[in-house]
UniProtKB/TrEMBL annotation:
Protein name: UDP-N-acetylmuramoyl-tripeptide--D-alanyl-D-alanine ligase
Compartments (UniProt record): Cytoplasm
Lineage: Bacteria, Pseudomonadati, Pseudomonadota, Alphaproteobacteria, Rhodobacterales
Keyword list, A-Z: ATP-binding, Cell cycle, Cell division, Cell shape, Cell wall biogenesis/degradation, Cytoplasm, Ligase, Nucleotide-binding, Peptidoglycan synthesis
UniProt-annotated binding residues for ATP: 107-113
Amino acid sequence: MTLWTAQEAAAATGGQVAGDWDATGVSIDTRTIAPGDLFVALRAARDGHDFVAQALEKGAAAALVSHVPEGVDPARLLVVDDVQTGLEKLGIAARDRCRAQVVAVTGSVGKTSTKEMLRCVLGAQGKVHAAEKSYNNHWGVPLTLARMPADVDFAVIEIGMNHPGEIAPLSRMARPHVAMVTIVAPAHLAAFESLEGIAREKGAIFEGLEPGGTAVINGDLPVSPILRELAQARAAHVIDFGEAAGNHHRVTEVTICDAATVAQGRAWRSNLLYKVAVPGRHFAVNGMGVLAVAHALGLDRALAVTALGQWQPGAGRGLREVVLLDPVETQLTLELIDDAYNANPASLGASLEVLAAAEPRDGLGRVTHGRRIAYVGDMKELGEGEVAMHRALAGHPSMAKIDVVHCVGPLMRELWTALPYEKRGHWTEDSRAMAARVRHDLDAGDVVLVKGSLSMALSRVVDAIRKMGQTPAGGNG
């Protein structure tokens, strides 16, 4: 299906075309480009213009450029003054022509998993378009919009930030009917003076709300009054969710099971019983926020609750896998909780709670009992209090049920030294050194959590654990 004709793309961007072509997608990466894509030659670590010829050789319909690269046929180019601006204009035009109900999501923790919950819930009641991966920044949001077909019923746009002033322009570009803030927690504190400053930046998502729009906010936070004030200034309706009394959508009871979370709650004077197919209190609370979004959009609640129960997190975000350690003795397995994509104190605390609720299996391996084991890496961008925040994890209530904690990075050495000796595993400077040890540290029956900021590359540890055996078909928990 054609997404952009040459003339439509030229009109949207104000650019010039010398040929006629149809694009079925939009791409910024020649490694994943598909035949028929419009290649956007962004300048990032490298200049995208250097890859235009390669993109066209791989079947790209055309390329969005600011000049004609040497040896490239001008008939397959859309030439604009600035490629980033051109991409933004393409995204704005896609939003203008689409009649979908748009949801925008931000938060210090859980915005990507919540976006995926919304994709699942909304997808049960119409055609949905949502951002890939964590495409939530100055190029990710316009790229997501530019890829949006005109005939979708719903769109979910994830919006992130690293510095002040980033969220509002992206929200104005997305023009959501519903804007949601999952949680405000210590993250990116190096760029902000306080948690209150982060809250005001997150609350800037409401600046792009369409007239009559709805703000959905977490009502349990110390900074919830700030979010509510900003929401009331822009939104026609404000719905708060969480566990505290007084929230419109309130979680009243959470039961964390080994492979799922069951929650009870109340919303608009009605009782709710729902589940998510992964353990974690934070998933249950954000799930209630998703149900609040569904309510704001006027969707069928029963269908929304059913669809929510079918959602599972993706790789690096709490995905649970069974790793088969012996192809003959198939009972020799361990369970891996892959949460290695990112970390801050709130999300790490939630992951420790999930690990504490997990059920190891005894009598399988060299060790007489199954263990709960954590591999944790530095939490980045926490500002002046980073040392204390890492050390404080030793006192987290879930630590009482965790057997061993292995630590990666100079900041996590603070946690390592604060841990009781019997829980103290290994400490290494980087993930490569830790990954080399996993075969010696793990055994059948163990449940293993891997969690850290993306720059710590704890995905190496995840990969090393997976390579200990093979993941059986249908092994997701």
